[in-house]
Amino acid sequence: MKYVVILGDGMADRPLEELGGMTPLEYAKTPTMDALAAEGEIGMVHTIPDGMKPGSDTANLSVLGYDPRKYYSGRSPLEALSIGVDMKDTDIALRCNLVTLSEEEDAYEDRKILDHSSGEISTEEAAQLLEAVRKELETDTYRFYVGTSYRHLLIWDKGQVEELTQPHDVLGQTIGQYLPEDKILRDMMEKSYEILVNHPVNIERKKKGLNPANSCWFWGAGTKPALFSFGEKTGKKGAMISAVDLLKGIAVGTSMKVITVDGANGGLDTNYEGKAHAAVEVLKDGYDFVYVHVEAPDEMGHQGSVEKKVRAIEYLDQRLIAEVKKGLDEEGEPYRMLILPDHPTSICIRTHSSENVPYLLYDSSDVQHNDWHYNEKEAQGSGKFVARGHELIDYLFEK
């Protein structure tokens, strides 16, 4: 038996007036997921432990079977694993987003955060900008590392875990009240704006009508993670396919194989077919389990774009899930496929929330016959509910 998790990051949502009271998942044309639902099982799962912040870090740990209450030490330390940073026990890791701030105000604290991803800036452009920041601000205590797109890393030697605000939670708002209390972190953010606002990369981006990446934004502080092997935990040889450092870092921390797919970029135009092909191939190559993560629905939710979020879900269905199913059916070996979001990323608030999310479980060797479609409303109506998200993977593995 082979096992697949396909996770549409932030795919769940709330009913939207512009979609006639439907969610993007309910509105989108998803013939593959609906066909799998009709032959499988749907239900709801609680992926975010009560009292914890709704994030892709806690939620994906949960889906992989690691109780976040025990294993979560912060988001950025997981990304540090992916980048290859060997953290000391006394290090604190912080996410360093390159964000777009408004430029017409005189004082830094009066600016508004317009875009948490700087128009999903390319890694190549971001690396040039971060190098400029590094030359001016890096010390033996504060070290910068390039990640992917707008997502980068700051390591603080002998630091402390600060309560910091996620930039995608305060889009469109004046930043003053959300800046770090730590004076050095706050000063570095302000100085980064001075370094970046007229950088040649940003001048060119503005000429092209693109959002400039004109400031660093620190958040997601945490300590060195202490995960353990997925293989030892489950008895399954596992692989991870994702474009984002967070998921790659979780894979490194749990000793899963990390598969890099050309053209996979975390955006709407990611290489869906490439991810599907890689998933089928790694299972053919002797792996038991593959986790395929797609960031696009989450990014479109943060952008507040109903049209693009619907399109991201349709691409996931028709360009990835359909291709994985086709490839596995052609191989002929039985498989179980679990499809779900990690958390909702609601269009109306442009950020994450903690509501339960719908799951779809399909077993090629135990085909059911029902009338289900895969969406939040019908999954809720199924009566199936997994209260502890980290136990869902045992259900996938039939433990």
Automatic annotation (TrEMBL):
It catalyses: (2R)-2-phosphoglycerate = (2R)-3-phosphoglycerate. Gene3D superfamilies: Alkaline Phosphatase, subunit A (3.40.720.10). Transmembrane segments: none annotated. Keywords: Glycolysis, Isomerase. It comes from the Bacteria. Residues 1-384 form the Metalloenzyme domain. Its EC number is 5.4.2.12. It is an enzyme of class 5 (isomerase). One of its GO terms (biological process) is glycolytic process. It holds the Pfam family Metalloenzyme. Pathway: Carbohydrate degradation. InterPro entries: Alkaline_phosphatase_core_sf, ApgAM_prokaryotes, Metalloenzyme, Pglycerate_mutase_ApgM. GO terms for molecular function: metal ion binding; phosphoglycerate mutase activity. Belongs to the BPG-independent phosphoglycerate mutase family. A-PGAM subfamily. Catalyzes the interconversion of 2-phosphoglycerate and 3-phosphoglycerate. This is Cofactor-independent phosphoglycerate mutase.
